[in-house]
Design a protein that fits this description.
The protein is mainly alpha-helical. The protein has three domains: 61 residues, no CATH class; 50 residues, no CATH class; 39 residues. It is 42% helix and 5% strand. The protein contains six helices and four strands. Strand 3 and strand 4 form a beta hairpin. Helix 4 runs antiparallel to helix 5 and helix 5 packs antiparallel against helix 6. The chain starts with a helix and ends in a 25-residue tail after the last strand. The mean pLDDT is 75.
Amino acid sequence: MTNRLTMLISFLLILGAAFAGQCAAADPPPCLLCGNAHTAAEHSVLYKGRAIPLCSPACQEHFRELERTGGLDPLTAGIEPRAALFQADSAPQRLGGSRLPFWIGCYVLLGVLTGGGAAFVAVRKGIPAGSSFAIGFALNVIGLAIVLAKPARETEFHVTGLRKVPTTRASLRCPDCGKANHPSANLCLHCGRALEPLSRSEVNPT
């Protein structure tokens, strides 16, 4: 048992030594500036948290000079992440140009808010909501003020707050039996009492 354990340990040591020798014999990475192979780790530089190997102090000084002048982008293009939504640029430039898109976006956002407010007011006043939204969207605050200044119309339904505007009337309750009847009913279907209809009947308008 002891001999087998000794042989296993010896085999593992030999295998580890062979793997270490293979790694040591591998070609060193090339210098980022000149492309020459190097073995001196002290010549590497730290760039954005990453150690970049260089072959000599001259290349190291040249790298520092390019870093100060913002000329590293052609050299670091192969080691920096490049994607559609994320890029790491060694010499980032501030975004410039016209601020017109920003103001257009603000105008559209304000138009949506004022248009929605104008449509809300229009529904409560009994006036068309579509045209009121267009006025509020195009003229913003001025359009909302125009809709607010319009007189209200007589509507069949009156709602307050943020409740949905109904499309049909509620049922008509009989004062005697309390049963529900159609809003246009003249007589209670349950007890026969005369009722005052809330709306005109579409079946018998007379």
